[in-house]
Amino acid sequence: MDKKTIAKVLGSVAKALKKHSPELMTGIGIAGMIAATVTAVKATPKAIQLVDEKEIQDGKRLSTAEIVKTTWKCYVPAAVTGVCAISCVIGASAINARRNAALATAYAISMTDLNAYKKKALEVVGEKKEQAIRDAVAAEQLEKAHVETRQIIFTGRGETPCYDPLTDRYFKSDMETLRKAENTLNKRMCSEMTITLNEFYTEIGLDECQLGERLGWDIARGYIELSFSSHLDVNGVPCIVLGHANPPQYFDYI
Fold first, then answer.
1. DSSP assignments along 29-68, one per residue
2. Overall average pLDDT of the 144-151 stretch
3. Measured between alpha carbons, how far is 53 from 120 in angstroms, rounded to an integer?
4. Helix-then-strand count for the chain, H and E
């Protein structure tokens, strides 16, 4: 194996370690806490022996302070292991916090650019052509999703096939249900100030998604404003592609 290949392999390993460092540090932290517990348990018989010997030597029962003074060295390895384990867990949490902050910033920048682009597109091409562009994008999303090969999700709230590009889910609903959810949640937002994406999905009968508590709508940034495109799938079945004129934004203050 030549030097370039070795360097390439080492670079790949380093990149993988950096990418998965929070998971690795969390795993090491958990293993360290277990090791610390085991080490402390193993040290206890030795500590008891030292206490017994000291009490025989002094001819009296030791106080708590004297017991600590007599046995503390037995627990040094366990303490060191525990501190290292806690440091790993804290380090993993710090890395995740920095990554989440970076994600929030990137998302906010993307949303700003997207809204600016949409506004300018309306000015340049007009409302009808801008809608035609959105319809074309929705049609492409539906085609790439290959919904005809999927098991559709039955929500019990409509019989029209719908596709949500945001979470890549194919489900049954209808325009009335979706509009009702939009109006209901916008009304709630007037008093609650924010609505999460998961609350929207629950309202239309879908399961919550992983980032659904960190994404949503803030009344200061605008209400929920759904947009729809209707297209035929490859089997000629009409399908609603769900969109958002005001997309859910990242809650950077949660």
1. HHHHHHHHHHHHHHHHHHHHHHHHHHHHHHTSPPPHHHHH
2. 87
3. 85
4. 7, 8
